[in-house]
Amino acid sequence: MKTYASPLVRLLDALEKLPGVGPRSAERMAFYLLRTSKEEAKQLAQSIVNAKERLRFCDVCFNLRENDRCPICEDPS
């Protein structure tokens, strides 16, 4: 059994919660992220935060949107 430092274990646990990601895939992603620059890792984290803050589901069709309705439902034609 592999023994990892607690920050890595928390990262692995978080990655494994993603759909379709098992323990081995989580390891690959975690080690990839640890090899990238700090700036790239921050950019990924910020992209996730921005998406969570700015995107919602359209009230009409449940497509992702930034405004009241998605572009498809806003189009009068």
Verbal overview:
This protein has 77 residues and is mainly alpha-helical. The chain is built from four helices and two strands; from the N terminus they run αααββα. It has helices at 6-16, 23-35, 38-54, 71-74, and strands at 56-57, 64-65. It has a two-stranded antiparallel sheet with strand order 1-2. A hairpin with a 6-residue loop joins β1 and β2. α1 (6-16) packs across α2 (23-35). The longest helix is centred in the middle third of the chain and has 17 residues, at 38-54. The model has no long low-confidence stretch (mean pLDDT 94).
Could you list some keywords that capture this structure?
single chain; 77 residues; mainly alpha; two-stranded antiparallel ribbon; 2 strands; 5% strand
List the helices and strands and how they pair.
Elements: H1 6-16, H2 23-35, H3 38-54, E1 56-57, E2 64-65, H4 71-74
Antiparallel strand pairs: 1-2
